[in-house]
Write a structure and sequence with these properties.
- The structure is a homodimer.
- Chain A is an all-alpha fold.
- Chain A folds into two domains: about 45 residues, Homeodomain-like (Arc Repressor Mutant, subunit A); about 130 residues, Tetracycline Repressor, domain 2 (Orthogonal Bundle), CATH 1.10.357.10.
- In chain A, about 70% of the residues lie in helices and about 0% in strands.
- In chain A, helix 4 runs antiparallel to helix 5 and helix 4 runs parallel beside helix 7.
- The radius of gyration of chain A is 18 Å and the shape is elongated.
- The interface between A and B is medium-sized, with 32 and 32 residues.
Chain lengths: ~190, ~190
């Protein structure tokens, strides 16, 4: 990444989301994304493997944040509470990102390929969470079940936050979803 | 499907699973599957859209079974108990299918494309379950959260049943997973 291309990665991601929102994902080419960002196609492919990946730039960092928060929860914390700490940590990333998240979600929901990629990212996040829980001494299947429950809360909480523009934070939406899941599995 | 091709669908599915297990998914062609089943490639594509779909033949029926059991649960049943009834119904399909399920799971785990397709099928099952719960009068986000919890139990219960050959039924594995999820979300 040379000096002559400052923030190429971010510029490409911003340009891609703009174009996908304006014209649709299928109708947009990598050449157009690169042009809008003032860069070349070659630079695009130095940063992203394909047209989809540019929308998932943040997921690696998100996963690290989630996993580190789970690992860093007090040793006495129950597995579900360690996951709750992870959800809180993840939510901080989305403060002031409501508009961006809404746009991105609309693009993903409109395209089956993108939904597939999202499912894969969530499955990978779930596996990483289960791994983090096992390293805390949680056994199987408790680790995998808690991780899957955490992903369910993340997914539903996120969807609700995106749908309810400007009403509360993602952290609140996820905490509410977790409380509801607890009530529901209590048989309530 | 003419009389001259009795059970073509099942024969193709059996041949595909055999070949995928013996040679690997990537190393097997549709022509080879058709040949092993004593049928033509053309017949294959009349039944299955691609090389992946043949492994997911039963998922539509499974989804109907799951959804119908949720719909048919007593009106007084809590959402999670309606889902538990669905899990019980689904488990009946797998009685005496342990060997087949193990083979199929091994093929899927070994290939990223197949894992993707599996994730999509599970997401579709989750959406259908949430829909069935809403038709029972369950509101959002409770319907989606309960559906996701049900899928988590199905997934983990299934994996454990497949891993623990010959020890108990799928119904037992899923009931155990559900009990564990309840204990875990109770903060235990």
């Amino acid at each position: 990444m040379g000096r002559w291309e400052p923030n190429a990665r971010e510029r490409l991601a911003t340009a891609a989301l703009e174009l996908y929102s304006e014209r649709g994902y299928e109708q947009t080419t990598v050449a157009e994304i690169a042009k809008r960002a003032g860069l070349t196609e070659r630079t695009y492919f130095r940063h992203y493997a394909d047209k989809r990946e540019v929308l998932f730039d943040g997921t690696g960092g998100l996963q690290d944040l989630f996993v580190n928060a789970v690992a860093g929860a007090p040793a006495s914390a129950a597995p579900i509470d360690a996951v709750a700490a992870g959800l809180d940590a993840v939510a901080t990333v989305f403060v002031d990102r409501g508009e961006h998240s809404r746009k991105r979600q609309a693009v993903i929901v409109a395209n089956a390929e993108l939904q597939e990629r999202e499912l894969i990212k969530l499955a990978s996040l779930s596996a990483a969470l289960a791994d983090a829980l096992r390293r805390r001494g949680v056994r199987e299947p408790a680790a995998s079940l808690t991780a899957e429950a955490g992903i369910a809360v993340f997914k539903i909480g996120f969807e609700r936050w995106v749908a309810a523009t400007g009403e509360g934070t993602l952290a609140e939406a996820m905490r509410e979803s977790l409380e509801q899941l607890k009530a529901l599995t209590a048989g309530g």
